[in-house]
Design goal:
Helices cover 31% and strands 28% of the residues. The protein has 8 helices and 9 strands. The radius of gyration is 22 Å and the shape is flat.
Length: 249
């Protein structure tokens, strides 16, 4: 006679499968560029791939692999970066990997006229393998109020940067006029409902990420642009049926 598995145990098993965490393992690969026109210092570049494994269905893992693919995120291909000498390294950092949520930062480093770096932060629903958009988890009817709270944090950081400019921490080589222009640029920054884009998730809460987009020559004075809101602070703005609702119950 077959033993029946109690319904509550089946629910526990289903829940554990539904929220099974993906394991992200780094795989470092060094590529070589060929061609006489390639400078010696650009002959190689490094790609550290985020390889995925775990108990999730194959289709989900395939979607996840595409979601966190450097080539998709940065809009390029391996063939392109092998012929274009700008890229020096692609790397990643897992910031959070619990409760059915993956938070991962993908970074590209390279150099042309000067060294440059850009990072894209992704929040991923591990149940589907799909990236989570801002509108998927935050209430659209409260974005203006939420933006005001972010802007207040930006203003505090901007005031500190202006104080440091006055102290000469960013150099005075270009004179008072240049510093006044820089202070005006920093002081004129604002965060609005249209600015919402990237964010990061942790046990502490949600960090809103803001990139002021300063050119290289003044990037030292650019705000860090990472503003943490605890789960209690951010609760009024979170959709009750979205991926982040589990953190505020």
């Amino acid at each position: 006679m077959k033993k029946l598995i109690p319904a509550f145990l089946l629910m526990l098993v289903a829940a554990s499968i539904g929220f099974a965490q993906i394991v992200i393992t780094p795989k470092k690969t060094v590529y070589t560029r060929k061609g006489k026109e390639i400078p010696k210092e650009k002959r190689t570049f490094i790609v550290t791939y985020p390889l995925t494994s775990g108990a999730s269905p194959a289709a989900t893992k395939k979607k996840l692999a595409n979601t966190i693919s450097y080539w998709r995120v940065f809009g390029t291909t391996l063939a392109e970066v092998q012929t274009d000498g700008w890229l020096s390294e692609l790397s990643f950092q897992v910031n959070y990997n619990k409760n059915g949520v993956l938070d991962i930062a993908l970074t590209q480093d390279g150099s042309g006229a000067y060294p440059d770096q850009s990072t894209v932060n992704l929040v991923v629903d591990l149940k589907s393998g799909e990236p989570v958009k801002f509108a998927d988890v935050f209430k659209t009817n409260s974005l203006a109020k939420f933006a005001e709270a972010v802007d207040a944090k930006l203003k505090i950081e901007s005031k500190d940067i202006i104080r440091r400019i006055d102290k000469g921490e960013f150099g005075n080589e270009n004179g008072k006029e240049a510093n006044d222009s820089l202070k005006e640029q920093v002081g004129g920054l604002s965060f609005t409902a249209d600015t919402f884009n990237e964010f990061s998730v942790s046990d502490k809460g949600v960090t809103i990420i803001y990139d002021a987009g300063f050119p290289h020559v003044i990037q030292a004075a650019q705000p860090d642009g990472r503003y943490l809101f605890s789960w209690t602070q951010i609760k009024p703005f979170i959709k009750p049926d979205g991926l982040l609702a589990k953190f505020i119950r």
